[in-house]
Amino acid sequence: MLWSDPENEPPEELRDMQHMLRRLSVLLAMAMVLAMIVLGLG
């Protein structure tokens, strides 16, 4: 890695978007598990 290479730091909006996507995927996974339980009980 050269000294002239840019920092390996993503911009602020990109990091915010990644956090939001991670939260959304966790919510989606929990919703799917809940749906499986409800369908299994029904």
From TrEMBL:
<keyword id="KW-1133">Transmembrane helix</keyword>
<feature type="transmembrane region" description="Helical">
    <location>
        <begin position="20"/>
        <end position="41"/>
    </location>
</feature>
<keyword id="KW-0812">Transmembrane</keyword>
<keyword id="KW-0472">Membrane</keyword>
<protein>
    <submittedName>
        <fullName>Uncharacterized protein</fullName>
    </submittedName>
</protein>
<dbReference type="InterPro" id="IPR058070">
    <property type="entry name" value="MmpB-like"/>
</dbReference>
<dbReference type="Pfam" id="PF26627">
    <property type="entry name" value="MmpB"/>
</dbReference>
